[in-house]
Amino acid sequence: MSEAVNPGPPARRRARIDLRRLGRAALLGPGPRDRLPDAIDHVAKVHRARHPGADLDQLRRAYLLAESSHRGQTRKSGEPYITHPLAVTLILAELGAETTTLTASLLHDTVEDTELTLDQVGEGFGEEVRYLVDGVTKLEKVDYGAAAEPETFRKMLVATGNDVRVMSIKLADRLHNMRTLGVMRPEKQARIARVTRDVLIPLAERLGVQALKTELEDLVFAVLHPEEYARTRDLLLEHANRPDPLTRIAEALAAVLREAGIAADVLVRPRHFVSVHRVRLKRGRLGGADFGRILVLVAEDADCYAVLGELHTCFTPVVSEFKDFIAAPKFNLYQSLHTAVAGRPGGDVAEVLIRTHQMHRVAEAGVIALGNPYAPTTEAPEAAEADGERADPTRPGWLSRLLAWQQSAPDPDTFWASLRDDLAQDAEITVFRADGGALGLPAGASCVDAAYAWHGEAAHTCIGARVNGRLATLATVLGDGDTLQLLMTQDPSAGPSPDWLEHARTPAARIAIGHWLTAHPDAAQVPPDTAPAAQPGSAPAEAEPRAAALDPEGAVAAVPDLPGAAVRLAGCCTPVPPDPVTGFEVRGGTVTVHRAQCPAVARMTVSGRPPVGVRWCGGDGAGRGDCRVTLLAEAFGRPHLLADLTEAIAQEGAAIVAAAVEPPHEQRVRHTYTLQLPDAAGLSGLMRAMLRVPGVYDVSRAHAPAAGHRPVH
Fold first, then answer.
1. What one-character DSSP code corresponds to residue 74?
2. Looking at 238-383, which runs of residues are DSSP E strands?
3. Is the entire prediction scored with pTM above 0.70?
4. Of the listed 3, 41, 113, 134, which one is catalytic?
5. Which of 3, 18, 41, 112 is catalytic?
6. Is 387 an annotated catalytic residue?
7. Over the stretch 143-190, which tens digit does the pLDDT of each residue have?
8. Collapsing DSSP states into helix, strand and coil, what is residue 684?
9. Strand, coil or helix: what is 674?
10. Checking CA distances to 598, which of 208, 358, 387, 697 falls within 20 to 30 Å?
């Protein structure tokens, strides 16, 4: 169903029974009722083929209740309304949905559009059906207008998270509505198609329901891009009149497998409209083998690899096209081996998918193929979660993440934008944590995303990472199978930089960073006149401006000869008492304080900017008091150097605010640390302690960020 070529307009696709005739019979009332069971009988036969022990009586009762409840109602096409829930149920039955889902799909519009109540549904069919009907009903209570979309889909997300069968029914409902979209005005068709494209199709992809996703894609394609759709249809019609090289390659492949004694079904699987369109855009010109793929179905996992071995032995493989989604399944449950081979003679390159029959069912139907997640088992039943939501064993990791961040989205518009961005990320990776756990993240996620997925808001204090044992910036993009260790500071005042937003792909990370920056507005206001160039993923060298007065603890402060001016200690040289200092006024009236020998002082003096006198005040007059400083440690590269240096820093009572690492060069490495010291007088002792770390041959004050440094965070 998912990739069958349909050379005609998608709207012409019909169920295998005459729903219009049966619907008219229902509309006429109780007279000619003898033919009504035919409709549900067809659904029952499809269902019984997948579920031999299914309770068909429940389906019959649900159909009769739905038919009597909707009697007299018509769709905009003029057809009796009962044709809609019947078609939705047939779609789900063909995908292998279990009886509870089919029962709820028959009744999914009754509570919203008829006098039937949820209590009556529960009394007649049980709590599970009542729950599903209620979930689908809630999705229909808000119009799909532009202003309502954000809140509509927030409700959809919550309902889906509590039971993925709700979304299964919703997707089948939308598919039937899209099939019959032609009765609506063009502008309404376009609006519904855009919503389907932006949210429902990505959700179908993430739930693994490829059969629904591919047909929805074609229907949306026809509405939103009619010219490209017509061109693709013409290409398919033209190809249908030519010999198909895939048939020849499939026959040769089947012969090879028979000779090897491997039982397999070898099928030519035509591409659907959107797939053909994408291939044409990618390759420019379509060859005969580009209009489909070869599907090989076997019994066991081991047979998949046996087929692959025979295929690569007897044909010429295209190595770059090989992907193993059996050993590493996709985030949406999809498993298969992908490869491509050049057939003989002619050399046509054919894409080949190898999977078991069970993998194929899951590839087509996704979570629908998993059946009822709440069916009784021999194990203890899943208990309700503390917040009252039901624990769903079929809930994928991406769905759990969406449920988490949607609660933090401050308003519907932010939620809507974040949802669309998240759903646009159509691949997922698995990252292994240093403590043995695993994180599921969207492809392209960085260490920033991993930090917030792992630690939540505690990730604000992350200062660096190790990826596969090597130091890396928080901006580093993670790959599937990477091992990650996050480095955290104990400084409770540490926080993210605005730069982190540039490297965060997940809504959870972006929303958490945005909340922190909103609560700490000064952290995002590094004056451009004096701030060092931002490194990717790094925090600002000076996260907070220093007040030009004594704090309650008696800490040291820099006081400018400019009454009332705010003061910021420059991040490029991080002056501390008793350093000779000077200041310069920047935008907003803030005075930025530099060490006298800082190169920035010479640059601003040459540019004609007048200096502002600054003196140290506070502490005990001997340079004691809270301060921040940047140190440069140069060492010979060795394992555990970073751990040993950070331990030495911690033992001296200093907190790491920021850290950066220059790529190793000739066995040497540079570490730059911005540190918070409880007492400026302890700076010399701290530098001596760092110098005692094996391999470290020099520790000095940093005047400015060294060129080529790669920040750890």
1. B
2. 265-270, 292-298, 316-317, 323-324, 337-342, 349-356
3. no
4. 113
5. 112
6. no
7. 444 444 555 555 556 655 567 788 889 899 999 999 988 888 999 899
8. helix
9. strand
10. 697
